[in-house]
Amino acid sequence: MATSIDPGLLVQLKKYGVKDAATCFNCGNCTAVCALSTEATPFPRKVIRYLQIGAADKLLHSPEPWLCYYCGECSETCPRDANPGEVMMGLRRYLTARYDRFGISRLFYTSTVFEIFAILFIAALVGLGFYAFHGPIITGRVALNQFAASHVIELLDLAMLAVLSFFLLTNARFMARAILGDPNHYQREGIQWNGIPLGIYLGELKVLLSHFLTQKKFKGCGSKEQRRQWIAHLLIMSGYSIIFILVVVFLRWFQHDGILPIWNPVRLLGYYATFALLYGTTYAFWGRLRKTKTVYKYSHSSDWAFLILLWLTTFTGILIHFAMLLEMPLATYTLYVIHMMIAIPMLVLEVPFAKWAHLLYRPLALYLLRVKERATA
After folding, report:
1. For residues 126 and 121, what is the distance between their CA atoms, to the nearest angstrom?
2. Which of 61, 218, 251, 377 could join 230 via S-S bond, C-beta 3.0 to 4.6 A?
3. Cα torsion angle, 323, 329, 331, 335, sign
4. What does the domain layout of the chain look like in residue ranges?
């Protein structure tokens, strides 16, 4: 089948942070030094060539950008300063936008104005919602569950989870179809999806779960610096996942007017998640401000938005905890509203349409490659 060419692709990708790909002369040095590149998936060289010639459809079907964990070695050794590591990062943003059938990711990544407006707009809606519908303001003691009833917040959380899951899984389904390719390539019998027996999907689920929970290929480059990056990344992911589960699934046990005993498992998990998020985001902030590491020298506006929202969500959560410990009712209620005005825009925008979606797309790409390998064996 002929490959369609988009002559404006390289210009279009500049909006996603791909700045220097035109200088690449395809020497292959980046692929040679990459510890994660294989004969079956040779990157970054292959996908850089695709974008240079405008092969947008081939890029859409390529899993390689998700196999890169951006250690930066390819950029450090590139003889043309084409910055292949950042090119791969930009391609991940571009593919996230291509998978999104609703067009929100494209706007979020290509328009800083839309990005800021969307965050502020959702934050304003949350603030107005609390202003109009909050419960009684009790000043004699901290009564957070009177001000923001946990059972109401829990229902709203579950509704938000359902909506965000719909968007994210719809986009992930499109990604899966793109990576698996033409169903006619898989001539198999039995119950199938995209031409592949369901038994193969089920049999390889361990690959998806393993990479999602551990992000273990992140440390595959082997350098000490890459291991530190992996630890920071794992802390952010695990801390966020724990807080998300506590807030959405176990809110009635997590949100208390009183303070749980120090040995309570919910409180201990909350402390771990808070430390993990604060350490991970501060580490990334410091790296991007200093710019001493290749991976942090170039930052897209969406990178800053993600870190700022996540750090502020964590920090305001800490302030709420201290306000409750110090028995400051008005401060607790005010900080709670501010906290929600930061956390909800982050969830609504980042989970299905931006950076948090990468947490699913990376292990999903590895899983789909394994499924594809077994189906064609």
Report:
1. 9
2. 218
3. positive
4. 9-99, 105-376
For 96-137, the pLDDT digits (tens) are 999 999 999 999 999 999 999 999 999 999 999 999 999 999
Q: Which residues contact 203 (CB under 8 A, 6 or more apart)?
A: 374
Helix 265-290 and helix 301-325, axial crossing angle in degrees, nearest 10: 140
Residues 189-243 pLDDT 10s: 677 888 898 999 999 999 999 999 988 888 777 677 778 888 988 999 999 999 9
d(CA 228, CA 220): 12
Alpha helical stretches, state H, 134-250: 144-147, 150-180, 198-203, 205-214, 224-248
Q: At residue 277, what are phi and psi to the nearest 5 degrees?
A: -70, -40
Domain 9-99 maps to which CATH number in 3.30.43.10, 1.10.10.10, 1.10.1060.10, 3.40.50.2000?
1.10.1060.10
Tell me the residue type at 214: T
Q: List Cα–Cα distances, 332 to 125, 137, 157, 319, in angstroms.
A: 20, 11, 20, 8
